[in-house]
Amino acid sequence: MKLKVAILSLSVFTYVGFTAQNIQNNPGSNHGNKFEQLGTILPTPNIYRTASGAPGHAYWQNRADYDITAYLDEDKRNLKGSETITYYNNSPDDLDYMWLQLDENQQSTVKKADFPYSSTLPKASTDQQLRPTNLPVPDNGYGVNLEKVTDASGNPLKYTVNKTMMRIDLPKILKKGEKLVFKVDWNYNIPNRIKMGGRGGYENFAEDENDLYTMTQWYPRMCVYSDFHGWQNHQFTGRGEFALAFGNFKVSMNVPADHIVGGTGECKNYDQVLTSEQLARYNRSKTATEPVEIVTLDEAKKAEKNHSKQRKTWNFEANDVRDFAWTSSRKFVWDGMGVLIPENNNKVMAMSFYPKEAYGLYRKYSTKAVAHTIKTYSEFTIPYPYPVAQSVEAANGMEYPMICFNYGRTEKDGTYSEGIKNGMLGVVIHEVGHNFFPMIINSDERQWTWMDEGLNTFVEYLTEEKWDNKFPSKRGPAWTIVDYMKLPKDQLEPIMTNSENIVQFGPNAYSKPATGLNILRETIMGRELFDKAFKTYAKRWAFKHPEPADLFRTMEDASGEDLDWFWRGWFYGTDPVDIAIDKVTIATPDLNTPPRETKEIKYKVDKPALNEFEDISKLRNREDKSITFYVDKDKEAQDFYYRYDRGQEKVDNNKEYTSKFEGTEPLTQKEKDKFKNLTAYQIDFVNKGGLVMPIILEFTFEDGTKLTDKSSAQIWRMNEQKVSKTYYFDKKLKSIQLDPMRETADIDTSNNFWSNDGGTSQVSKFELFKQKEGGKTRGASNGKINPMQAAGKK
């Protein structure tokens, strides 16, 4: 750079100490590929998915509508169902078979997908764990029992069950634009999910001999057929969740008469299943500003004591959803209130269902947390479009459209700790938030857990912050991921890892992507750019099936930021952030630099011959008689490139040229007084971790004042291992703190601090002078003066 007194009048001036000369002096230090474009790593854009990250003009997706009847047999703990599916082939392809998911088969010892884990002999075991291994494994009686599969006329359809998947072979091709109506009847024994695990089943309360049912993954469901995957028929193992098509649902659930039912969508016959008092409370709750008990605690306690043998049928409808789940129990207290979503003027019923064991917490917080969540997510993504949002206390955490299952029970006396309260609030926000990711922005959870869990955890963090600025969020802030990033490399894996293969599931699929998005928002892009881009992604892919490239491309397209380096490092790599302050060099100005005279150098131009080496192509071209060469007789044209390179208006071999270097003159006493307190600090940084990040510095001066500066991650683009920055201050530095707010997930903060404790001597001086004003300067190489030459540097 050209160093002038006018520039140095600033209180701080920085110089990035990396030039072409540095590259030459540091052989082997560069280049990696951290700043290269993702290129072919991402799928090629096409008419379905564009290079901008938006759906293409030919984007399509298939649809499945369901009409289902269900019968809950509480005595036998069995579910019997019958469904009519209308499947719409909107793809450009002819289909000769279809795939459905039979998720309940995962509970079966003989029908499950059977993705085993290795096992070792424990040092100690309980008597319950020590049971003889019976081979082959006996059938435990769980899993889907298919009664019949027919077309709309009742004719049998050929089908094959492969573990948790069922293929139906069609009697004729289902062509583009056609629909198929078919029926499936089935039943299964409902598992005890507390003992057996899993997403759905029953929980038994031994004290009052009642069950609480969470009916999830309970019906044969259509797999997604897509432009990027074909049939998504990967087996369900209990971890990688779901890929589902959108559709409309009509569902009737026949349950014991004293049960209360909550489900996806809206109940269409409350007037038939509720008492007049309960119906009146429900109607009042629609306009209430505080949750109203629709079924009271006293009513729930009374119902627990009587097991009705009568039956009631609850009818629900839900449009444009990808799934349907429901819950049923006589133990439920039920409260609700209306919530207005301002962005689309949508009036939503926020509701909660919970047993008396959770009353002390859920009555106070659950429905309010539901309302807060859908309102906050609407601000950061898209306006909540559905008429209902529900939270059910069921001692677990799992999400479905418009309904989710959470935990949060009090002690028997109704008391609870702050930890239980915050945990309950966090899980309610998280599971309700899943209405957006992936229930609306409908990513493929079977393949990419992070696309719903990671994105949802990120917005959960934003929502927790708006609930309580001091909320103890465990995922989202950069510093919370450090312990994971510190692990040995063989214990880390890229975020871009298939759901079934992730070892560190929570950190990898939830925490790291959420943290990455928060770093993008707060540190790399800034809130304004990030929020616009993130909302654009949500808007583009609402009610559609996005893939990772669609997110990556949209975030760049809508912000104007090249983030390939970030996706490459944070999502595709395992390197941690560990940037260290390696050395600080201090220098003061030499104010008595002797003046230098103006120099003129005389030289002649020797124009070289073009293409001096006769390569093999030229020789063969001359020998090829079929080639005719164009001969340019215009001498000016022949000289064009040489003139352009030299910066001369015209080149003449016989003419003598002059290169003039301006001299310098000493500073005046006034100027010396002005800059006598100037101190330069060259800070050398080393990238120990490998993952590039912005360099954020906090300077503390001897007078107690502070100053901060941030350089973008692109400072590493020329050298990914080492970089230097020089600052000129007119007061003395006391200390330098790298990443003072711990916002880059740096795993080692012990090398982020430098202190001028008095033991550091000023090791050098730098010359300070004035450039002579006057005639035009010209360098001998390209018509421009070299600034390092002007500064007296070699």
UniProtKB/TrEMBL annotation:
Gene3D superfamilies found in the cross-reference section: Neutral Protease Domain 2
InterPro entries: Peptidase_M1_aminopeptidases, Peptidase_M1_dom, Peptidase_M4/M1_CTD_sf
GO terms, molecular function: metalloaminopeptidase activity; peptide binding; zinc ion binding
GO cellular component: cytoplasm; extracellular space; membrane
Start and end residues of each Peptidase M1 membrane alanine aminopeptidase domain: 370-570
Keyword annotations: Signal
GO biological process: peptide catabolic process
Domain of life the protein comes from: Bacteria
Position of the signal peptide: 1-20
Chain spans, region Disordered: 772-794
TM helices/strands, residue ranges: none
Pfam families: Peptidase_M1 (PF01433)
PANTHER family: PROTEASE M1 ZINC METALLOPROTEASE, PUROMYCIN-SENSITIVE AMINOPEPTIDASE-RELATED
Protein name (record): Peptidase M1 membrane alanine aminopeptidase domain-containing protein
Naturally occurring in which organism (per UniProt): Chryseobacterium taeanense
